[in-house]
Fold this protein.
Amino acid sequence: MAKFCQYCGNEVAEGTLYCEKCGSPIQDAPAQPVQNNQTVQNIPGQVNQPVYQNVAVTGKKTNGFAITGFVLSILSIFLCCAGLVLAIPGLIFSIIGLKDASNKGEDGKGLAIAGIVVSGIMLVVSVLYIAIYVFAAFV
Ligand SMILES: [Zn+2]
């Protein structure tokens, strides 16, 4: 089977590594029309820089609302009855965080659920504490 030079179209013998006519390396691909191989060469002055893709390598972003909600709910534990002040926004932020994290495909759903549970408990505890305090004041 005869081969043809990819660059100049010259017929070359089987087993020949370089075209006798133009000196181009002979590949096993079938003969193709002569192509402008200048497109392969580097244009002088043009630096070939690696293309940095805009893809985050280190995991997903954690949702800000979820973090805020969780932090507020944890802080409300330390404030005891006054935790109501932080438990309410903590609950709201956690609920927003849970929805926002799923909408944006971000991390923090577990954090948001923990925030909802903790601030929910603190809300009940705070309300009970205040109720007992108020009740005690009238007795
Ligand atoms: Zn050739």
